[in-house]
Amino acid sequence: MLLFVSISLSFQVFTRVEPFALSDTLLQQTEQRYGDIPLQRVLRWQALINNSRGNNDWNKLHKANDFANREVSYASDEAHWGRSDYWATPLESLQTGAGDCEDYVILKYFMLRAMGVEENKLRLMYVRALTQNEPHMVLTYTEKPGQYPLVLDNINPKILPANKRTDLRPVYAFNASGLWMAKAQGLGNKVENSAGVAQWQQLLERIEHGN
Q1: What is the chain's mean pLDDT, rounded?
Q2: Cα 97 to chain center, whole Å?
Q3: Quick check: 131 and 166 in contact, CB under 8 A?
Q4: What would the pLDDT profile of 41-68 be if each residue is shown by its tens digit?
Q5: Terminus-to-terminus CA distance in the chain, angstroms?
Q6: DSSP per residue over 76-115, as a string?
Q7: Which helix H or strand E contains 39, and what residues bound it?
Q8: What confidence tens digit (pLDDT) does each residue in 83-109 have?
Q9: 89-92: which pairs have CB atoms within 8 A and are 24 or more residues apart?
Q10: Sign of CA dihedral 43, 176, 86, 63
């Protein structure tokens, strides 16, 4: 069982206004189980969140996107977890130093929420990566309704508006509040109680209950 499972780290830790701080016990156990390199990665994550809270959203987006793409190496769920589909918590991705497209998006999402970016501006979006001809996930940020969302991605590390990402075909988007069917220019219409967010709901429950 990974370390995150045994540590109580609720969803509120990522969204409250006081400094983001991991416990000494968590840091010590990270070092004991994973070594100094993962520990330093986690410490850089914590420092970046706290040092970025006063920045504007544009800077926060680039810091979170660059950090996740740099610190986490791509690995399929089958190779990394021995499962066909597994959504890792942010700490699991950082402690192991690897993840797939969903894990990059989850890490970026929670980093930005912890930095103070409003939830209603962020969406996890399933897309079709046309160049690779396979399903993919990206994180999107929309400053104002009706604008093209900005896309944070691990395939193309440059943050671009969605209309400039012609290599992606949107499928649907969601966040902690629900599911939106994707449209080319916006967020689409909210759909309640969709099975498409089951993994996301389970992930939030694991973070909330520390298991």
Answers
A1: 84
A2: 14
A3: no
A4: 999 999 999 999 999 999 999 999 999 9
A5: 9
A6: -HHHHHSSSS----HHHHHHHTEE-HHHHHHHHHHHHHHH
A7: helix 36-52
A8: 988 889 899 999 999 999 999 999 999
A9: 89/4, 89/203, 89/206, 89/207, 90/45, 91/3, 91/4, 91/7, 91/9, 91/42, 92/2, 92/4
A10: negative
By DSSP bridging, strand 122-129 and strand 134-141 are antiparallel
- State the virtual CA torsion across 145, 149, 152, 156 in degrees, nearest 10: 180
In the chain, the amino acid numbered 15 is T
Neighbours of 73 (CB within 10 A): 12
Whole-number Å distance between alpha carbons of 38 and 206: 21
* DSSP per-residue string spanning 66-78: HHHHHHSEE--HH
Q: Which amino acid is at 6?
A: S
Quote the crossing angle between the two packed helices 36-52 and 57-71, to the nearest 10°. Answer: 170
Tokens read off for 22: 């991991």
Give me 161's structure tokens: 């508006």
CB 63 within 8 A of CB 71: no
> Which single residue is written with the structure tokens 């949107």?
170
